[in-house]
Design goal:
With about 350 residues, the chain is an alpha/beta fold. It has a domain of about 140 residues: Rossmann fold (3-Layer(aba) Sandwich), CATH 3.40.50.300. Helix content is about 30%, strand content about 25%. It is built from twelve helices and 14 strands. Strand 9, helix 7 and strand 10 form a beta-alpha-beta unit. The longest helix has 18 residues. The N terminus is likely disordered.
Length: about 350
């Protein structure tokens, strides 16, 4: 993986599982004349290792349920990893208490998927923006806090006169601009954006994306951008991480991923993008269904749907291996030169 000296966030072999067994009484079962305790888990993330480089927009893509949002929330500390480590500028942060995390909260901010749920309906817009500024900068006077809030509103195209209004008075696109302003209010350097445009009209999506790109350029921001929309990735991303069933299949520079996808799942994913100029699209149709994350398949989690799978794929879990162009692929078929 990348050198720690040049990466901002380091994610090291993280796992996250959620218990679906209920309480203790639900877990007790009678088998073979004995009472045994049976526990089941949803295996949401399975050994993800990534580096987020300073100043880049690292996009994480994959179908619904592949673990993208769980990775985002685990990096932000909203979820604790079941195993593995998360480092920020070389310092481990996943094992810190809430008080110890405070200095990092100012550096790391999050933009949520649903702009209708992420803003407090009881607070005016100016109160929503002033609260984090005041919390992280207790030495500022009320006038300085208000000026800072107005400054960040202006930077995202939000009129200062909106400040006394409530979230329900705005459209989805306007609310998401306010959410972005709230994230920028404390001058972070790292922002996790969890599908920030998926709830918006297509006509508004481009405006919000361009706003985020402008903010990145002006403030030297680093993004971890979660999305399932590959056309957005092509426009926005510096590098792309492709996930399937909680594991990383491929990591590549955006241009390389779209021009030469290596992993069979990435190839199928890209073939599904509708293109106006293509009157005879060559879709790759995958067989079968996505396996359940409760009982993961042995070996490569994709082997049941992969047209190139062999016995090794069923037995052995592939690991990410660097290619000549820097792309990293976790695939036995690519390693063996079969594709």
């Amino acid at each position: 993986m990348s050198d720690k000296a040049t990466s901002l966030v380091q994610i090291r072999d993280i796992y996250k599982r959620f218990s679906i067994s209920g309480d203790l009484l639900d877990q007790l079962q009678f088998k073979g004349g004995k009472i045994v305790r049976h526990r089941e888990y949803v295996h949401a993330i399975n050994g993800v290792t990534l580096d987020v480089m300073q100043g880049e927009a690292l996009c994480v893509v994959g179908e619904s349920g592949c673990g993208k949002s769980t990775v985002a929330r685990t990096v932000m500390g909203l979820l604790s990893p079941s195993a593995g480590e998360i480092h920020y500028r070389g310092e481990r942060i996943d094992n810190l208490s809430d008080r110890e995390m405070l200095p990092y909260r100012k550096q790391m901010q999050m933009i949520f998927q649903n702009p209708y749920a992420s803003l407090n309906p009881r607070m005016t817009i100016i109160q929503t923006l002033q609260e984090p500024i005041q919390f992280h900068n207790p030495t500022l006077s009320p006038l300085e806090v208000r000026d800072k809030a107005h400054e960040v509103m202006f930077s995202v195209g939000v009129d200062a006169s909106w400040g006394e209004r409530y979230p329900h008075e705005f459209s989805g696109g306007q609310r998401q601009r306010i959410s972005i302003a709230r994230a920028l209010a404390v001058d972070p350097e790292f922002i996790v954006a969890d599908e920030p445009i998926s709830a918006l009209d297509v006509s508004i999506q481009a405006q919000v994306l361009n706003l985020m790109m402008d903010a990145q350029e002006q403030r030297n921001l680093t993004y971890l951008f979660i999305t399932h929309d590959l056309s957005v990735v092509e426009h926005f991303g510096t590098r792309v991480v492709v996930m399937y069933l909680g594991t990383v299949c491929e990591v590549a520079v955006t241009k390389n991923l779209f021009s030469q996808p290596r992993h069979p799942y990435t190839q199928a994913l890209l073939s599904a993008i509708p293109r106006l100029e293509d009157d005879r699209p060559d879709y790759i149709k995958l067989k079968g269904e996505v396996p359940t994350p409760v009982n993961l398949p042995s070996g490569c989690v994709f082997h049941g749907r992969c047209p190139h799978a062999n016995e090794r794929c069923k037995r052995e879990v592939p690991i990410l291996k660097a290619q000549t162009d820097g792309t990293q692929v976790a695939c036995h078929a690519v390693e063996e030169g079969r594709i």
